[in-house]
Amino acid sequence: MRFLKPKLLFTIICAILLTYALTLNEAYGKGRYYVTQEGSGSKDGTSWENAANDLKSLLDNLDNEAEIWVASGVYSPGTGSDDTFSFKKGLKVYGGFAGTESVLEERDANVNISSLCGGNISRRVAVVTAHSGALSNDTRLDGFTITGGGNVLNGGGLHVEISSSPLINECVFSGNTAFRAGGGVYNYYSSPFIINCNFTENKSISDNGGGVSNYYSSPVFENCTFLNNYTNGFGGGMFSYGSKYTVTNSIFTENRSRYRGAGMSAYSSTVTVTNSTFTGNHAEEFGGGMHNEGTLLEVENCVFSNNRTIPGNGGGMANVNSSGVISGCKFTTNTADYYGGGIANFESALHISDCIFKENKAVRFNGGGIVNWKSTISIDNSQFIDNVAIEGEEIYNYESNPVVR
Question: How is the chain split into domains, by residue range?
Fold first, then answer.
């Protein structure tokens, strides 16, 4: 019997191992994979006929560019305290399929609900974790309902990690809880693009941001709705600290905060909000619709209506040690139990232009439309109509001399 020389044998073994590695890379790398709740056929995920049924395992094993189509159903990351759906760089994950589609445009996420459900159990991680390195052009979560997150720390539904900028599109974050910050979503040193998403009935128990919390982050929100989120701290709909973010064409309604900013609260941040609506939000201290503190703000073409602070100040908006511009906005029928039915400015420097203040009310004290407390304010081309207060029905000033043109 003739034996191969050791060197030749080693070369053959290396070639076999390399071929096997390349095969694995092809199987678990680039390409499209299919998932249904029950799975079918061989369950290798290569087609709807052979759909996988373990979404978590598939996500864990994919490390290269890949696309995953997920049919309607309820998918769990597991029951362990560290179980999460790992959303990594290069993955584009789409929900909302019936399980027969051949092109992406055939799906209907409003009819075929793909739910990522944490089961409302306490865990150390969010239902979905977006890992570092993701970019909006290569990493996407699209068409899912994320629910049942019960994180004992931060981020009940989704945690976007440091240096991560994924695209989150047409997702619903509903019924998630964080013991600390970010019941629906927690952004930490990250810059996600969050588009066409709904945040409903999420809550933070001991910290801030019932719907979303941004810490040292630069997220973009477009066409989003924040409805009936709650926090025991600041920011029922959204809270931000040390962040620079934009909000466009979004709605904040019926959110609640035990302290400040039922709709939105920002500390030491740079905030740009345009073409958005704040209505029916309720805070107990400052800013029923919006609260800004130590913040640079630009608020343009927004509507603040029926927001309230009871008890508290700034039914529509409260600004503390903040500066910036408010233009083209309408403040109507907002109520503060104390000062500033429409807006309460405390030690702030603001330019207000082309705004309407109508039928706002300061119930117990002063400044039905606006109260300026030790602030530097200029007001141009604005209307004050039928606002109500004990003193200063339209504008009340304390150690302030606003310029009104």
Answer: 30-223, 233-405
